[in-house]
Amino acid sequence: MFNNLSDKLDKALHVLKGHGSITEVNVAETLKEVRRALLDADVNFKIAKEFTNKVKEKALGQNVLTTLQPGQLMVKIVKDELTELMGGDVEGINLSGNPSIVLMSGLQGSGKTTFSGKLANYLKNKKTKKPLLVACDVYRPAAIDQLHVVGDQINVEVFSDKGNNDPVAIAQAGVAHAKANGFNVVIIDTAGRLAVDEAMMTEISNIHKAIEPQETLFVVDSMTGQDAVNTAKAFNDILNFDGVILTKLDGDTRGGAAISIKSVVNKPIKFIGTGEKMEAIDVFYPSRMADRILGMGDVVSLVERAQEQFDEEEARKLQKKIAKNQFGFDDFLKQIQQIKKMGNMKDLIGMIPGAGKMMKDIDIDDDAFKGIEAIIHSMTPAERSNPSIINSSRKKRIGKGSGTSVQEVNQLLKQFTQMSKMMKMMQGGGGKRMMQAMKN
Ligand code: GDP
């Protein structure tokens, strides 16, 4: 995420951090570099200029030049300003109605349908919410089907009316259906166009007036940079929306949209989309995002993601299995699947302070587990629960079945044995024994 920008800001600030004496000249030089980095990231010129002016003002106000660690203080000022620019405090969505109506708006391809599904899934997992998805794109039958596919995937009901070509009527019928059937959140997916046009604006505005949503969200593809900001402005003029959803932040986004949008429309970014999967949704925390942009990682989000996937009941079962030496490849597979649900690998590593920078040029395949999974899938149930029966002819068969080699099968078996040993040691609380096992 934002690798290029992070890199350039790091270089700009590095000069200051490393300097024995900091002068007004090199502060000015640094700020010029910071501004250039922001412009390269497709941040609006005016915003970039205001940003560096504010940083300069603060730096002078806080007498940066005479403090003990001027470089650190400069980084802090830049971080605070960046946080402020992206919205300051985190803002949730308003779900006070019964049902609460959430209206999605945005261009075609921005990720509305995908995000509608992600939001429904996110709310469903909160247990107190029972969401209904409503398909209001009457122009593309495929769009309705797509929402149904998403709904099936996350087990959320989808309301649609394929023959009907009046999106306002469908939205109203969807809300009525929710009321009659005990849904407490209605998420309305609407039709977008490739560019802002009058017919689309009239339509979304009519839906908005008819259903009076508690929350109108504008979904925008962060890869579109300055265009994203212009589109946001056009939609906001008509809808006066409540918040922005920035999608596709997992891609090679330069960051301009994330940094500029708040100050142009004065509406907060509420969620971000970080992948195509239903789990790839995050609440937008300006301060955490600033940390990430400045290469400071985001451990808090990393821990939260791990917690989301953590199932206490499962963990207890697993503990028992480990204690009884019954931890098998099926359990291992489950663990891998949980890690995969946390997000894409590069994104996760980027959350570890310092690691993102170190690993930025290393291509981390999201299918890093593919080989391992294929090997495990090629094992029989008996082999999975009792790997010790895997002799050389079985290894050959597994290698062949999984499209890997006997060496790779051997390697996995060895790693698995070591891991099982280690887990048992850790459970027994024997730190010393664990150290011993590591030496062996
Ligand atoms: P809509 O036309 O606004 O409903 O957009 P869709 O939901 O159909 O999304 C358009 C494309 O973008 C699809 O291929 C999605 O899988 C993809 N997409 C949506 N959100 C994200 C995201 O956060 N990251 C990535 N990488 N792809 C996304």
Write the layout of secondary structure elements.
Blueprint: H1 3-18, H2 24-40, H3 45-61, H4 70-85, E1 100-105, H5 112-124, E2 131-135, H6 141-154, E3 158-159, H7 167-180, E4 185-189, H8 198-211, E5 215-221, H9 226-239, E6 243-247, H10 256-265, E7 269-273, E8 281-283, H11 286-293, H12 299-309, H13 312-323, H14 329-341, H15 345-350, H16 355-359, H17 370-377, H18 381-385, H19 392-402, H20 406-428, H21 431-439
The structure holds guanosine-5'-diphosphate.
Q: What are the key terms here?
A:
440 residues; alpha/beta; Four Helix Bundle (Hemerythrin (Met), subunit A); Rossmann fold; 434 Repressor (Amino-terminal Domain); 3 domains; eight-stranded mixed beta sheet; 21 helices; flat; binds guanosine-5'-diphosphate
